[in-house]
Amino acid sequence: RDAFKLKNPLASLVQCSKCGRTLRYKGGEKVKTPRFVHAYNYECFIKSVKATDLVDALIHALKLYIEDFELTLDNKPMVNRDSITMQIQELQNELKRTEQRKTKLFDGWEEGKITDNEFVERKTILAAKIENITANISELESTIPEQEILTEKLTSLHQALDIIYDDGIDATYKNDFFKQLLNKIEVSRENDIEFILDVFLN
C-alpha cells in the first residue's frame, strides 16, 4: 500500500520553464539525494535539481510574496465593510434621484417647457453626474474584495510555510494544499551550477 502513497508534496506543480514538461520527483528510501528530474529528450533538457534546494528556493519565494502582500496591505487604508456598504447605499440613492431628474428633464423637453439648448446643457450635466456616481460605486465595491483577497492569500502563504516545515503532515495533504495556492513552479537553468525558480500563485 505504501508503494502507491504519494511521496512528492509538489507533484505535478514543478515544470520546466522552456518546454512546460512536469519535472519527475525521484526519491524514496533507496535514493540518497531526492531530486526533480527532467525527462530526457533531444528538444529540451536541463540538469536535475536537488529536492532540498528546490524547497529552499520555494520557501524564499513564498516569503517574498508575504513581504509584498504585507507591504501592499500596510499601504492601503483599513476597510470597514459596514461603512463601505452604507456609502454604496447612499450613492445608489443619489443615482436613483439623478436618473429621476433626467426622466423629468426629458418630459419637460417633450412638453416644450424648456428649450433645446437648455435641454442639452442639463442633460450633459446629469449624464456626467450619473457617470461619476457609477464610477464611485464601482470603486467602493472593489475595495472590500481586494482587501479580503490579499488577506486570504497572506493567510494561505503563512500556512504554506508551516506545512512545508512540518514533516508530520502527509504528502498528499500538502500536495492538495499547494495545488490550491500555486498555479505552477517553473525551473530554469542557464548553467549546471545554479537554477532559477519562478513561483506562480493561483
H/I helix tally: 4
Number of beta strands: 6
Shape: elongated
Strand residue content: 5-15%
The CA-CA distance between the termini, in Å, is: 32 Å
SSE ordering:
EEEEHHHHEE
Strand arrangement across the biggest beta sheet: 1-5-6
Broad structural category? mainly alpha
Helical residue percent band: 55-70%
- Rounded average pLDDT: 89
Q: Which ranges are low-confidence, i.e. pLDDT below 50, for 5 or more consecutive residues?
A: none
Largest sheet: 3 strands, mixed
Radius of gyration: 28 Å
Write the layout of secondary structure elements.
Layout: E1 14-16, E2 24-26, E3 35-37, E4 49-50, H1 51-74, H2 81-110, H3 116-165, H4 171-181, E5 182-188, E6 196-201
Parallel strand pairs: 1-5
Antiparallel strand pairs: 2-3, 3-4, 5-6
Helix pairs in contact: 1-3, 2-3, 3-4
Tell me what the structure shows.
The chain is mainly alpha-helical and 202 residues long. It contains 4 helices and 6 strands; from the N terminus they run E-E-E-E-H-H-H-H-E-E. The strands form 2 sheets. A 3-stranded mixed β-sheet has the order 1-5-6. A hairpin with a 7-residue loop joins strand 5 (182-188) and strand 6. Helix 1 packs antiparallel against helix 3 (116-165) and helix 2 (81-110) packs antiparallel against helix 3. The longest helix is centred in the C-terminal third of the chain and has 50 residues, at 116-165. The mean pLDDT is 89.
What's the short story on this structure?
With 202 residues, the protein is mostly helical. The chain contains four helices and six strands.
